[in-house]
């Protein structure tokens, strides 16, 4: 697949700030399938160093609240300003996904790329902490790293070269996620399905000199990628 929008992003920004397989490409495929309207107010949850947040403003014309736990708001704000963004377009917030400081029904949509698996596997999370913040009829568009089929009962050796079984605990297939999401009332499931984007996103990540990318090279070069994919979760608040 082609990624005209991701490819328009500043290559240096991508190279130095992605925190996993190219999230700009994952976001582009997600929003091709489940489009948002320019001008809508969106939370980018677990935005990391803000690559997808910048893209949501520049490429999709959205107003973005960029929330992350490991990366400070000041650091992200510096990056956003360097990219020419204003406080009318984007607001960086340093907070835990369990303590989101927003009004109920504030957001038209929530987007989250490669981070929801850190907190959203808890079946209570969605209904308790996130869904109330989305307006009725609003969307939750999530991408999580996944497996074609869960392998936790018998993990292939390629996956265990630098990752531990514990590291893989948060990675699951689409059926597993359907079961997690189905526990929450008040949400319509549009789709929980594998994305096409995978290898291409991994290539971009493994080519960076991020220390985690360097660690990921051994399993991926040994063929771990054949078990893995990205899973899109597209939900509408009733
Ligand atoms: C693999 S990084 C992905 C970052 C970014 N979305 C990207 O793709 O470049 C995972 C992100 O999830 C965030 N995260 C993990 N647990 C979180 C929590 N409880 N609340 C908010 N963010 C969290 C981390 O701060 C981290 O930046």
Q: What is the CATH superfamily label?
A: Vaccinia Virus protein VP39
Poorly predicted residue ranges:
none
Q: What oligomeric state is this?
A: single chain
* CATH fold-level assignment: Rossmann fold
Q: Helix content range of the residues, please?
A: 25-40%
Note the main sheet. Answer: 7 strands, mixed
CATH architecture term = 3-Layer(aba) Sandwich
Counting DSSP H or I runs of 4 or more residues, the number of helices is 9
* Global outline: globular
How would you classify the helix and strand content by structural class?
Answer: alpha/beta
**Element-level helix/strand string:** HHHEHEHEEHEHEHHE
With strands numbered from the N-terminus, the spatial order across the biggest sheet is: 3-2-1-4-5-7-6
Can you put this structure into words, describing what you see?
This protein is of the alpha/beta class. The chain has a single domain, classed as 3-Layer(aba) Sandwich (Rossmann fold), CATH 3.40.50. The protein is built from nine helices and seven strands. Strands 3-2-1-4-5-7-6 form a seven-stranded mixed beta sheet, sandwiched between helices. The two termini are 32 Å apart. The relative contact order is 0.17. The model has no long low-confidence stretch (mean pLDDT 97). The site of S-adenosylmethionine (SAM) has 20 residues, from helix 4.
